[in-house]
Amino acid sequence: MTYRLTYRLRRIAAAAIFALAGPCAALASFPDKPVKLVVPYTPGGSADQLSRMLAEGLSRDLGQPVVVENKPGANTMIAATQVARSAPDGYTLLLASNASMVLNPMLYQRIAYDAARDFRVLGIVAELPLVVVANNEVPAATLAEFVGYAKARPGKLNYASVGIGNPLQLATELLKSRTGMDVAHIPYNGSAPALTSLMGNDTQLMVDVVSTSLPLVRERKIKALAVTTSERLAVLPDVPTVAESGFPGFRAATWFGVAVPSAVPQAEAQRLREAVDKVLKDPAFRGRFEPLGLVIQAPRGQADIDAYVQEDRQRWGEVIKANAIKLD
C-alpha cells in the first residue's frame, strides 16, 4: 500500500470518527454560551431576588453566565410570550409562575401563547404560602370564629385583594366557597393600599402572600387567622392551617418555577433540569428565602411536575368557572 493511499485512508477514517462523535461532542458542550432567564417582574421584589440567586446557582452548575432580563407587564404575559416565541434551543428560560402557566390562559380572552402546548415546566422552585389576615377590630381570633362572625352578617363585611383575577382574589373566593361565608370583594391596585384598607377597617379580611403580611403581623397591626398550606409554617408556627381550622383539604399557594419552550430538545431540557435541581438542594439557597416565607421545593421528576401543574389548573379552573371571571 502506498504512502499516499495510506494517508487518504487515515483521513477518511478520521472524518468518519469525527462525524460519529460530532453529535455527542455538541451535546456535551451544552451550554456553550450565556443563558438568559426572563423574569416577568420589576427589579427588587421577592420574585426578582429569587431569580437572581437562582441564576447564580444555575451559572455555577452550567459553567456559563445566566443573565436575568426583567420583562414586566401584562400580568406576566409579555415575558411569557417572548419566551414562547424564542428559539427552542435551551438558551432562553422563563421564571414561570401559576399566573403565567395556569391562571392567565384561563382568565384572558386574548392571549398570545398556549401554556400547555408552548411550554415545558422544568422545575417548581418555590411556593409562596398565603396567610388569611384580618383587621384587629374584628372580634375573631381564629378562622372558624371569623367565619361565624361573617355568617351572622352576610354581605356586610369586605375582603381586600390586589385585583380581579389575581391569585390572591381567587384564593379568597376558594376560601369563601369552602367556608360558606358571604364577604364582598374590594379590589385595590397593589398590596400596599389593600393592606392599608385592612388596617383601617375599610376591609376586614385578606388572603395575602406571607412575606408581604408577615411584618405587619409581627408588629400586631393585623392578625393572622390561618395559613393556606398543608402544614404550619416555620415563620408563623402558632398560626394553624385552614385545614386545622375546621376546613379539611383546603390548600392554596402561588409558585415560581423554570420553564422553557416545549420544543427544546430532551437532552438540553434534562441538563437544565439537573442544574435547577442542584440549586434547590443548596442549603444557602434554601436558607436565604425560607425565613421570608418562601418554601423552597424539593426536586421533582418531570411526571410529578406535570401533575403538580395540572392539579393547579384544575383547582383554579373550578374557582374561575364558579365565579365567571373573565378578563380582556
Describe the protein.
- Keywords: Signal.
- Residues 1-28 form the signal peptide.
- It comes from Achromobacter insolitus.
- Helix 2 (46-62) crosses helix 10 (266-280) and helix 4 (98-107) runs parallel beside helix 12.
- The chain contains 12 helices and 10 strands.
- It has 328 residues and is α/β, with parallel strands linked by helices.
- Strands 1, 2, 3, 4, 5, 6, 7, 8, 9 and 10 form a 10-stranded mixed β-sheet that branches.
- Mean pLDDT is 90; it is low at 3-7 and 11-27.
- It is globular and about 65 Å long.
- It has 2 domains: 35-128 and 253-323, D-Maltodextrin-Binding Protein, domain 2; 129-245, 3-Layer(aba) Sandwich (D-Maltodextrin-Binding Protein, domain 2).
Précis, in short:
The chain has 328 residues and is α/β, with parallel strands linked by helices.
Tell me the layout of helices and strands.
Blueprint: H1 3-28, E1 35-39, H2 46-62, E2 66-70, H3 77-84, E3 92-97, H4 98-107, H5 115-118, E4 119-134, H6 143-151, E5 158-161, H7 167-179, E6 184-187, H8 191-199, E7 205-209, H9 210-218, E8 223-227, E9 253-261, H10 266-280, H11 283-289, E10 295-296, H12 302-322
Parallel strand pairs: 1-2, 1-3, 5-6, 5-7
Antiparallel strand pairs: 3-9, 4-7, 4-8, 4-9, 4-10
Helix pairs in contact: 2-10, 4-12
